Amino acid sequence: MKMRRWMFLLLCLPTLLKAQTNTNTTTNISPFKQYSIISPLPLTLYDGSTFSKNDLPKNKPVLVFVFSVECDHCAHMTEEILKNIGKFGKTQLLMITPFKLERMKAWYDEYKIKNYPNIIMAAEPTRQILSYYDLHNFPGTYIYNKKHRLEADYEGTVKLDTLLKHL
Hints:
The protein is an alpha/beta fold. It has helices spanning 2-27, 31-35, 72-83, 101-110, 128-132, 160-164, and strands at 43-45, 50-51, 62-66, 92-97, 119-123, 140-144, 150-155. It has a seven-stranded mixed beta sheet, with helices on one face. It starts with a helix and ends with a helix. Residues 21-25 have low confidence and may be disordered.
């Protein structure tokens, strides 16, 4: 009787291993690619109020820019975006940092973000945003069409012309 159990287990083992392998491959896909939507995580705005993707204007493309307040590349890219803000047309820019609100406020004030009506800057200090976008190198740039579906994504510094071709 024991021999039958062992034979049964040996015969089932390849099936169990294959099922385990299939499970792991689907979980290795980054959530932003798996769902193709803007991060659903709650964000904190300058005034301390909460903001989510549902608060974004409808039928308008969105450029999500995940940045670090300690990143020179992020600072340079922010300056480039602001210098060329007119080229973004009707695109909504959503700048998100995984740092605390106080650190984001300093960046917001330094770059005078309040002067740019098509930019929303928010903090997500739980750092879950990094997991959602599977971000390893700042900045992360994610372009969504007017239906808020993912069109393109870039990790690290990217040229402005590359971004604009998607908008």
